[in-house]
Design brief:
It is found in: Cell membrane. One of its GO terms (cellular component) is plasma membrane. Keywords: Cell membrane, Membrane, Transmembrane, Transmembrane helix, Transport. It is a multi-pass membrane protein. The chain is about 85% helix and about 0% strand. With about 450 residues, the protein is mostly helical. The protein has one domain. Helix 2 packs across helix 5, helix 4 runs antiparallel to helix 6 and helix 14 packs antiparallel against helix 15.
């Protein structure tokens, strides 16, 4: 492939919704493939290793999400700067941001790796994981965290490409690595009998491949991407700026994940059936909600480029057109989930041996499906504000969502037991939606550009 074929996408021109959706579709497919890693792991473990192993892997989900959220928060912070520099055609500043991003990702990754390896045991005990499966949970977590740099670097490289409007290349790399993940899962588990360790190694190897492929693409097309002659060391002000923009997002995501860890501990108290049901149904939810998140995340890159170019009116138009697409899409996703929930759960759980877990999973999907419209609206407003650099408001919204989810979970469980934990999720989305909507209507976000 020649440099002329590098895929940059200027979202400051053309029809707003067309630019947003053309960017969103490849990112959606890529996000689904990323979730596919987890789908394959869950299916292989549940079908070929057993329900206890599935519960062991599932209970590490919140800790793994914490890892991803911290890394992606910092990557997205750099992405805001890169997209605004690209929109303003300030390419020298963009190069400095890319170099700073790689240094930040490296240091953060090493810290997270060490913390995950040494704290895996205490974390699983804190979550109340049963003694019968805690050794499996600790093993899985140590492998995933031990090689966490593979996922961190993939997200960093993907954020660079998406900031300049290229959502296709990360998709292609993920498709390749997903195939590798499937092959290695089956090989390690069925052929070599590696169990939980096998699916963990398959995942980190596949992530490493996707990171390497993205890096090779960026190097090959560095001139077309305006990423030639990168500075060897980042200027201090750019590192500070990445932390100033990225840390609030990372903190918000981390707090939400910690809330998920707290809720996971509550679910664990209901036994392995509830744990297995939550593992399977939350994987389904993760894929379904990627449709909403992909559309909204496209709005973040769109608003970032247009903020850099000073096109405030175009940002407003993009939001209106996005919401006109988002609401019917959310309705359709919810309808599919509500109608086919039992059949989808059957992919992960055996209908004969895990009937109780399937019933619990159906209850979970029924409750959260009705809240998808609220989640889509919340994601749209929050991502617009993030792209414009108004990240502190998004943190406030995230903390409100977290507080309500955790508080409501522990309150509702008194009245409705396990179902109360599930009801708290759409209630928290509603609270997390209020702050960004009010902020948008105030117009104060228009003064939050990070490059002016």
């Amino acid at each position: 492939m020649s440099d002329s074929k590098a895929k940059v996408n200027d979202m400051t021109v053309g029809t707003p919704i067309k630019a947003i959706l053309l960017f969103a579709v490849p990112m959606l497919i890529g996000n689904v493939f990323q979730q596919f890693y987890n789908f394959v792991d869950t299916t292989v473990v549940g079908k070929f290793v057993g329900a206890d192993a599935l519960a062991a892997v599932g209970t590490t989900g919140s800790m793994n999400a914490l890892l991803i959220c911290i890394a992606m928060g910092l990557s997205n912070g750099a992405g805001v700067i890169i997209s605004q520099c690209f929109g303003a055609q300030r390419y020298d500043e963009m190069k400095k941001a890319v170099t700073a991003m790689m240094y930040v990702a490296s240091v953060t990754g090493l810290v997270i790796t060490a913390a995950g390896i040494f704290l895996a045991g205490p974390a699983m005990r804190l979550l109340g994981v049963p003694d019968s499966i805690i050794h499996l949970s600790v093993l899985y977590m140590r492998i995933v965290f031990g090689f966490s740099l593979t996922g961190i670097f993939y997200n960093a490289f993907a954020a660079i490409l998406r900031s300049v409007g290229d959502s296709r290349t990360p998709l292609y790399m993920l498709i390749i690595s997903s195939v590798i993940n499937v092959v290695l899962d089956l090989l390690f588990v069925l052929k070599f009998g590696m169990g939980v360790a096998g699916v963990a190694y398959a995942t980190v190897i596949a992530q490493g491949v996707s990171a390497a492929l993205c890096a090779m693409y960026i190097i090959k097309h560095r001139y077309q991407l305006h990423l030639d002659a990168l500075p060897k060391l980042p200027p201090k002000y750019m590192v500070v700026k990445i932390f100033r923009i990225g840390m609030p997002s990372a903190f918000q995501s981390a707090m939400i994940s910690l809330g998920g860890i707290s809720v996971q501990g509550l679910i664990n108290s209901f036994g392995t059936d509830a744990m297995a049901a939550y593992t399977a149904s939350s994987k389904i939810d993760s894929v379904a909600i990627q449709i909403l998140i992909s559309i909204a995340a496209s709005l973040s890159v769109y608003s970032g480029q247009n903020m850099g170019a000073g096109n405030i009116k175009r940002i407003r138009t993009g939001l209106r057109q996005t919401l006109m697409v988002m609401i019917p899409v959310c309705t359709a996703v919810a309808a599919v989930m509500l109608i086919f929930k039992r059949q989808i759960l059957g992919i992960f759980l055996d209908a004969d041996s895990a009937q109780n877990a399937i019933e619990i999973g159906c209850m979970y999907l029924s409750v959260i499906g009705i809240g998808y419209i609220i989640a889509g609206i919340m994601q749209s407003y929050q991502n617009l504000l993030k792209g414009c650099g108004d990240v502190n408001v998004c943190v406030a919204a995230g903390l409100a969502e977290l507080g309500v989810r955790v508080g409501a979970s522990y309150l509702f469980v008194i009245f409705w037991e396990l179902q109360g934990v599930f009801i708290a999720i759409p209630v928290s989305w509603m609270c997390g939606c209020i702050i960004p909507v009010v902020r948008y209507l105030s117009g104060k976000w228009t003064k939050k550009s990070v490059i002016r």
